[in-house]
């Protein structure tokens, strides 16, 4: 009979783990544990040793390798720790996985609430992630809005397990953030790499793969979760546009408007469409503007993009008129550069005449921060001139900037578009309802129309109607549609509203 032998304690095993060469002797260590201490010693050693290795590598993140706001390891320390976890995982037959988490709209939150509030939100988000994962899982901060998680060695890290973990993290981050008497809502997209799909068993490979999956998640819309697969690698190149290819696409009709319906909360009828730029790439599919707008800006082609989108949008509106398809107006975004063009009014007058459209069929969308920041006299002069010829003026993303009531009057605004940050969960959150009520009351007193954007659920839609918001736009109505799909969607929508009760204002 074997004599009972004491199993080395955690501290001893951690000192052994501090020497990377000791991993080569791992089989011998486990065999000795079994030989001298039996199955119990083997089990204890096989559990404690991986944890000791993890603890050693995780603690190697020195203060200068940690984020000043959250205290989490930064990218270099995360890479070192993950490499250590992978090394010991291979040796003991366990595995790991890597997740990338992007906090969405952090820039807009910073613009609305300030840098200090953003820092506080980051700390809270970090704490929530840490509390959601297991005690020994590694959480790091890789960028301003990006966090990473590496699983401490586990027996299994399959697709289903990681989707469930991602969903729990998203749910934790979606809870409201109460900061300085404000309630802020956040959301997150997540990409992850499973061990069976990792390009290589290195930290760099896991991290790169998880970031590719994250980019795909971001591309697919708010709150998405994506797993890495080898076919995604080619899509990553879509995130860095070739300037020559992009310029050619702009001139050859590959960048076109897709149309998102705007509906009345009283009748459900479609009253207009917003034209949103999309790059229909022959190989990479539909590319969203967040990918190509920065490149166009560097090339000085934003004004040209505006011309192209208006041409296709006004052409579509004329074709719908001729086909007896009733669309009241088209909304088009205008940049500060376009609004500062001395010939803008002349150009738009010509474009409208070309398609035989009256000026009131064109909604000029202007970002709130453009109105708040401008000290260029030509911009308000152009906007007033556009209003004078009959165009309508929409103030976009209302509530994210600092546009005063005086500026709203100065720029002759017809309608404010209430930002998604005020719409999210308004059917369940009393504070959101109070904020919306204040905005809608102000708009009513100023004789402004109101449209809520980013309306994603029927509950939000119903609450906005009840509070008195005139129009809504968002996924609860429809995702943006290519021109070829608009007629079919409209026919389906008309059938639906004809057979369903209307969501009316001030219900009950």
From TrEMBL:
<dbReference type="GO" id="GO:0071111">
    <property type="term" value="F:cyclic-guanylate-specific phosphodiesterase activity"/>
</dbReference>
<dbReference type="InterPro" id="IPR029787">
    <property type="entry name" value="Nucleotide_cyclase"/>
</dbReference>
<dbReference type="Pfam" id="PF00563">
    <property type="entry name" value="EAL"/>
</dbReference>
<dbReference type="InterPro" id="IPR001633">
    <property type="entry name" value="EAL_dom"/>
</dbReference>
<protein>
    <submittedName>
        <fullName>Sensory box/GGDEF family protein</fullName>
    </submittedName>
</protein>
<dbReference type="InterPro" id="IPR035919">
    <property type="entry name" value="EAL_sf"/>
</dbReference>
<dbReference type="InterPro" id="IPR000160">
    <property type="entry name" value="GGDEF_dom"/>
</dbReference>
<dbReference type="InterPro" id="IPR050706">
    <property type="entry name" value="Cyclic-di-GMP_PDE-like"/>
</dbReference>
<dbReference type="Pfam" id="PF00990">
    <property type="entry name" value="GGDEF"/>
</dbReference>
<dbReference type="InterPro" id="IPR043128">
    <property type="entry name" value="Rev_trsase/Diguanyl_cyclase"/>
</dbReference>
